[in-house]
Design brief:
By secondary structure, the protein is mainly β. 9% of the residues lie in helices and 60% in strands. It has a 16-stranded antiparallel beta barrel with strand order 1-3-4-6-7-8-9-10-11-12-13-14-15-16-17-18.
Length: 317
């Protein structure tokens, strides 16, 4: 009996230890709002829209201590249209994120579907967190974003070093006979010290039609946030270039964002101005302004103006 009692005690201690070394968390966002869109000239539409400030989602993430300073981690996150219950991201089961990784003193390595470093850098700089205006598209309606996520991605992030950190991501094209066709890669370097955050990021994508390379697109961005306590200032600038398969230029544009965030009691006032300037063959520019949850945009193409008004509820769990 004593031996059995000791055995059960040891087994209980082992189970307690194992559960303490690993954890899994379920989380999510349900974001719904009434959105009125007005074209000028043109009709207006009123709709119940999901993901106005941030995409509605359901996710699972976890980590496990492997000992020796190593830990394993994973994240599975699906996008949802909360107004209908349908899956977003083209109906992919875990279209927002699906990866597994290893962490240690060397940094972290993650494999799977992940955000590109350029998008994460922009999300850090934008006062609206790349959301709110125009059915949740926000700043990425103007700044180039390459689809936000990459499939088949190998991502490496450095540990923090004196306020500096960096990451590099490579997405395999997986086209037989070619290592470049369909591939894309990008990276970022961040400095965060005191009131100042500075981020530099880049991305290059090989464009394909079927399994044939049709050219490439690339973007370089520099952004900064400076916290003055009473107000936080935001700014970002990017250059975008495109080439066809023969190396001839097919696109040349610039993106600019300036913004601010100011806490007023329990409320935060946010505002930004974003402009896309197309330098290629006299193409029209585009711009928009965001203030709080009210956004307006104007486009030089066909002289059409668009305005949005959003009122909604967002719950995180």
């Amino acid at each position: 009996m004593k031996k059995l009692t000791v055995l059960l005690a040891l087994l209980g201690a082992f189970v307690t230890s194992a559960s303490a070394q690993s954890s899994v968390t379920m989380y999510g966002v349900v974001d719904l709002g009434i959105e009125r869109t007005k074209l000028s000239p043109g009709p207006s539409v009123t709709a119940l829209t999901s993901g106005i400030q941030s995409g509605s989602r359901l996710g699972f993430k976890g980590s496990e201590d492997l000992g020796g300073g190593l830990s394993a981690a994973f994240q599975l996150e699906m996008g949802l249209d909360a107004s209908t219950g349908a899956a977003t991201q083209g109906g992919i089961a875990f279209g927002r994120q699906a990866w597994v990784g290893l962490n240690g003193g060397f940094g972290s390595v993650k494999l799977g579907r992940q955000y590109i470093p350029l998008f994460l850098a922009l999300d850090t700089i934008d006062p609206f967190g790349t959301g709110i205006t125009g059915d949740g598209s926000g700043i990425i309606a103007v700044f180039r974003h390459y689809g936000v996520r990459m499939n088949n991605t190998v991502n490496y992030s450095t540990p923090g070093m004196g306020g500096f950190s960096a990451e590099f991501a490579y997405g395999l094209g997986e086209v037989p006979g070619s290592t470049s066709t369909g591939s894309q890669y990008g990276g970022s370097v961040t400095y965060a010290g005191g009131p100042l955050t500075v981020v530099g990021a880049f991305h290059r994508q090989d464009q394909v039609a079927g399994v044939v390379s049709t050219g490439s697109s690339r973007t370089a961005m520099l952004g900064a946030v400076y916290d003055l306590q009473a107000v936080t200032l935001n700014a970002a600038y990017a250059t975008n270039r495109d080439e066809n398969a023969g190396g001839a230029s097919t696109g040349d544009s610039r993106d600019l964002m300036v913004g601010m965030t100011a806490p007023i009691g329990a409320t935060t006032l946010m505002a930004s101005y974003v402009r896309h300037s197309d330098k290629f063959l006299g193409n029209a520019d585009a711009k928009y302004v965001q203030v709080g949850s009210l956004g307006t945009t104007g486009s030089g193409t066909a002289g059409v103006g668009i305005s949005w008004l959003n009122v909604g509820i967002r719950h995180k769990f």
